[in-house]
Structures are given as C-alpha cells and as structure tokens.
Amino acid sequence: MDAPLEKIADPTLAEMGKNLKEAMKMLEDSQRRTEEENGKKLLSGDIPGPLQGRIQNIGEQGHIALLGHSLGAYISTLDKEKLRKLTTRILSDTTLWLCRIFRYENGCAYFHEEEREGLAKICRLAIHSRYEDFVVDGFNVLYNKTPVIYLSAAARPGLGQYLCNQLGLPFPCLCRVPCNTMFGSQHQMDVAFLEKLIKDDIERGKLPLLLVANAGTAAVGHTDKIGRLKELCEQYGIWLHVKGVNLATLALGYVSSSVLAATKCDSMTLTPGPWLGLPAVPAVTLYKHDDPALTLVAGLTSNKPTDKLRALPLWLSLQYLGLDGIVERIKHACQLSQRLQESLKKVNHIKILVEDELSSPVVVFRFFQELPGSDPGLNAIPTPNMAPSAVSQERHSCDALNRWLGEQLKQLVPASGLTVVDLEVEGTCVRFSPLTTAAVLGTRGEDVDQLAACIQSKLPVLTCTLQLREEFKQEVTATAGLLYVDDPNWPGIGVVRYEHANDDKSSLKSDPEGEKIHAGLLKKLNELESDLTFKMGPEYKSMKSCIYIGMASDDIDVSELVETIAVTAREIEENSRLLENMTEVVRKGIQEAQVQLQKANEERLLEEGVLRQIPVVGSVLNWFSPVQASQKGRTFNLTAGSLESTEHTYVYKVQGSGVTPPQTPSGARTKQRLPGQKPFKRSLRGSDAVSETSSVSHIEDLEKMEHLSGGQDASEANSPERHPEAPTPPEAEQTGALQDRAQRLEDDRPQVEEPESLR
Q1: Where is this region: Disordered (predicted)?
Q2: Would the pTM of this model clear 0.90, i.e. be above it?
Q3: 190 and 213 in contact (C-beta within 8 Å)?
C-alpha cells in the first residue's frame, strides 16, 4: 500500500500517479503561500464568491479524497479496454486493503453513498440465496413462506422501514428483538428471547432470513454478543450482518472479544469517512459469497466501469494515509474516550454509561442527583417503592438539566463534537464519540481536559437549581395571584404565570391583557440586575404568557423572589387599571363640561336680552349700559375627578387648593442589603463565612439603623398630646413654617382648565 505509485506496472496507473504527484505538489505549494497584507495563511479550500471562507479546512487527506472525484470523471473518458483494466485494479486493491486492515479474510466489497444501502443489497442477496425460485416466481414464493428480518430494539430508528421500502416487503416481515432487562447491558440484544422468537416464527411457517447485530449501538455504543449470535445464526441458517462504530477498532492491535467475533459474520458495513476524517468517501459493505451470479442480481457487483470508480477516492486516501496513519487516527480517537472516562470518574453527580471501561470508544454520561430514600449505589435509579409521580417529576427535571448541560458544553468546547441523546431507560444523556467526530473536528487531548473542566464548573449551577425547584414550587403555590406552570422542558428554577382579575382560567387562547402585564413584569425584573435570567414565552400547554426563571448559580432567597414577582405584577395591573379609569373619567368630564358651558351660554343670552345680540343696536346699547358679566369657565380636577368653576380663580387671582392625592402604598417588602449584594441573595446574617472586618460591620450598621428607626417610632407613639396653650418649641415652629409653605405651594399647583368656548 505504501509503495510509490510510479512502480506500478500498468502505464495508465503510472501516468495517473505522476499527475497525482504533481497535483499534490500544487496543493502543498498553495498551502505555504501567505498573504502580504495580514500575514495569514491562505486556505487552499477557499472558493471565490459567496462560499469564500465558509468551507472548513479539510487538510491534505481531504483534498486527496475530493481529488478522487474529479480524477474519476477524467478517467471515465478513457477507452473501454483501458478503463476496464484500470477500474478493476482500483476495486480489487481497495477491497484487499480493507479486508486486511479490518481482519475480514476472503471478502468482497460493495461501495455505496448511503450507509443503509449496503444492508438493503445484502437482504436482497439473502432472499435470492434462500429462495431459489424467487427469480422465476417472484413474490409468490415470499407469500407462501414469509421472510423475517430481526432487528435489535437499540437499532437506528427508521432502519426497518427503510429495508421494507427498498425490498418491497410488508412491515410484518420485521421482528423487533428486545434488549436485556435483568442481566447484562440494557442496550444489548437479548439472545435467549431472540432464540424463542426464531422458534415461534418457524412454527408459524415463516423463514428466519437475516439478523442485524450491533458492534456499537447508535445511541451508547454498546456491542451485542456477536459470538453467541453467530452460533445461533449457524444453527438456524440465518444471515448475520454487523454494523456499528466499534468495528473501527478491528484495525488496532488490541480488540475486545465481542468486536473480534464480527470478523466471522456474513457481512459488515464500515464507514471509513468519519473514522479517518475523509469527506465525500463512500461507505463499504464487506461480505462473503461464492456465487457471483447472485451478487450481480442483488446489485452488489456491477459490470459498469463507472460503478467501480466509486472506490477511487478511498483508494487514493488509503494510499496517502498508509496503514500507520489509519491505525494512528483510530487509536487517537479511542485514547480520547479513555481520557474523558478517567476524568469523569473523579467528578461527583456524573454517571457514566460505558460497556467496557478499557476499550469502549463511546462515552455517554449524564448529571444525576440522588433521590431521598434511594440507594446511592444505584446512581439515582428510582426504587420500585417510590411514587410514580415523584419518579417522573425527578426524571423530567434531570432530563431538562442534562439537555441544558449538553448545549452549554457544545458551545464552550465545539471541538468535542458532543451530541445530546434521549435514551428510553436512562433519559437524556450527553454522548462523546470521537471515532465519528475527532478526525473531522481535530479533537485533541487538551479539548478533552477543557471539556472535563467545563463539566466540573457547571455542577454547582445544576445542583443549586435542582435543589431550589421544589422550594420555588411551594412558594408560588402558596402565593395568591401566581400560578406555577410545570414545564418539563425548562431547565431553570421554574415557570410562573400571574393571574390577573380578568384572566379566563378555562381558556387556552392568548390573553392580550396578560401579555401586557407579563411584558412589563419582565422589564422590571431585568432592571433589578440580579444573577438570574428571566424570559417570557407562551406556556407549553396553551398560548398564555409566562415568566421563565433561569438557572441559579448561588443560594437564592426564593421567598423574596416570589414576593417580588407577585407585588410587581400586581402594581403593574393596578397602574394599568388606574390609567384606564383616568381616561374614562377625563372623557366623561369633557362631556359634562361641554354641557355646562352650553347651559351657561344660554343663561347669558337670557340675562343680556335679545337687543344686545343685534350687531349695531347691541353695540350702542353696550356703550350706554355696559354689562358687568363675570368670566365663567370650568377646571377639571384629575385628583378628585370632578368639574369646578373658574370664577374663584378670576376673582381672587388664585387657583383652588383641590384635593391632595393619596400616597401610593408600596407592596414590596424593602429588604436592606449589604453594599454590593445583588437582589434575591440570602442574607449573610448568622453565616460562619462572614468576614470580621467587612460583613460584620455592615450587619451591625444595619442593626443600629433598625434600632434607631424603631426608637423614633416608639417615641412618637408614646409622646403625650400637647396642650393647645402650651408653648411651642423652636423646632416645632420651624416645622410648622415648612408645612405652611408646602401647603401654599400645593394651593398654587396648576389645574386643567376648560376654556369657556369649548364645545
């Protein structure tokens, strides 16, 4: 494999190797060039135009794989004889190399773009092998003896439906084999139950056709007992196909016995593209069969040279990497998994779901909190005597927190390639599979260390939030006007909704008035500049607005938080209602003023008489006998909500005092905080961690202020009533003078005046 391409005997291959070497030299030269303006490297993968800078740097091995597609189009223009020889050589070399690397002796290879396509062709081959008259009689043979395809319950979702659609089989031809429930991994196929299913199908007159085993399940990377499954398949004449990411470890020196047993199966599907970081490289299905006619009918082989050129990108990449490069990449991915496992073992509240701690290339972990009344050795697995509601609530809470943890880790360490998976038994977990991501993302050991440090830093937030959830629910339930919304997908402290006076509790439609109140409440809460994050969104069961409270990084005073939410929402509702009432009062006042002014005009006409209304006669009459009429207008007192005459204003040249508005009571409990203390933090009073030089002095100052304010209130309450004739002290005289001055300023306050001509 590592031999120079010039030594190949075929002149066409030698010429292609020479051109390939020149192309590689051009790629290396383009990567060494630098920009004179900023001194940065030019990415040889950049494409001019809108895609420039948006394509990742795939490296030299990636360029080789991409070059294979262009080279294949160039080779397809050769004459038929040279093309046939060249494509046959490329296909045979690639098949031989893959079989040697992955320990699959005397196998054939089928290259395909879709990963599931190879399994579909294998199923077609198995049908032709077991049904000899299928070519002649077609589906009549299948009707008399229905084939059965066995899939694990942990298989990739949608795989069975894909096979039935490709083969034209009904869905009853699929048989779902459950995983272990008592012994062994809960993600491994139950071999004893499988044998029982096979016997039952044979008794019903069905034909067990094919079994799909997993060497690394799609979710957690567990491997079935392939050795035991192979014995069972040989006993009943069933075709055994193996797929999974753990097949990559066959290239290493040490391989677990369960994965090594896959070398004896009838077929296997490999995906070298993700394992080696090669873009646009086809997947490979290795199989063993002696009849070339059946493989041709099944579509596993082809006489078209262009179909054989699918192996060209992989042929070039394997020669470029060499055996050492392939083994090094797979070994590096497995070492990353082991490194993360060792780091997570030292972290509390993290459960690791691995099958084999020594060789598992996939690490699945989740955050957990031990439930009261459960065995700590079970890693927070609920016991049967626990209430189902409590188990379900705790499960949903942990699932939401693990989903938040996975998203945070993906943002903090993007090179880790983490994914969030939902498992049937364990719940939401975070998966680290470097075999499928490390070669593409360039994951290093430093990235794994950074990932472990980020997990450690997020644990206090997760633990604190989970502890405050129940307290927050109890406080909201006990507070009037607030409704606790149980949203299982929200990872924060909780969700709360304020129920205003006109709220229709039975309706699930949107509430405009409620949205207005919650929008104002969200603005007020964000202005407090606390460590909590607040968001507004619709309730997941209806369209009504709610306030979503985020994660808590420190000890939070939940009672103060809930009280602040309730009081602020109530004040916003009252202010909104007051504004609406004031608008209505002003409208009615204007209408009343118009009526009164019209009535005053009519009275003025009756008082002056008809002669004064005639233009010339009225002027002469007014000159001899002027009318002494007072100006009458109307003022509207917003505080009292009533109309008043302006006669007093024009006569005495001063406005009326009106009514002093009442002082708006504040429903919020004003809590005295230490300097620098943010809202909703618990008081440090009585804490052992208080500093003697700073915090204690602040607390003493607060106590003195409370004592002085309490003493002043008590002295005012206990002071005897002063006699009217008793002398007034100077302080009281000054206070009285200030009050008189304030009263005069209050009397001079301008009021809204309605002009006399208003209609």
Answers
A1: 656-759
A2: no
A3: no
**Cα–Cα dist 671/667, whole Å:** 12
Handedness of CA 12, 14, 17, 23 (dihedral sign): negative
Residue 419: CB partners within 8 Å, gap ≥ 6? 406, 430, 431, 433
Q: Look up residue 365 and give its two tokens.
A: 């972990």
**What's the pLDDT score for residue 557?**
84
What's the rounded mean pLDDT across residues 157-180?
A: 92
Question: Which tokens go with 560?
Answer: 């103060």
CB 719 within 8 A of CB 600: no
SS3 content of the chain, % helix, strand, coil (to 5): 50, 15, 35
The DSSP line for 289-311 is -S-HHHHHHHTSS-S-HHHHGGG
Q: Tokens 């943890």 correspond to what residue?
A: 405
- C-alpha–C-alpha distance, residues 183 and 193, integer Å: 13
Residue 617 CB coordination number (10 Å): 12
Tens digit of each residue's pLDDT (9 = 90 or more) over 309-324 = 999 999 999 988 999 9
Q: Residue 487 pLDDT more than 70?
A: yes
d(CA 99, CA 95): 6
| C-alpha dist (Å) from residue 387 to 338, 371, 383, 390, 392 | 38, 12, 9, 5, 9
Tokens found for residue 100:
């040697």
Cα distances (Å, whole numbers) of residue 219 to 335, 416, 550, 736: 20, 17, 29, 82
Q: What letters, b where the CB count within 10 A reaches 16 and e where it falls short, cover 264-288?
A: bbbbbbbbbbbbbbbbebbbbbbbe
**Strand pairing class (752-754; 642-645):** unpaired
Measured between alpha carbons, how far is 401 from 488 in angstroms, rounded to an integer?
Answer: 10
Alpha helices in 609-729 (DSSP H): 615-624, 647-652, 695-718
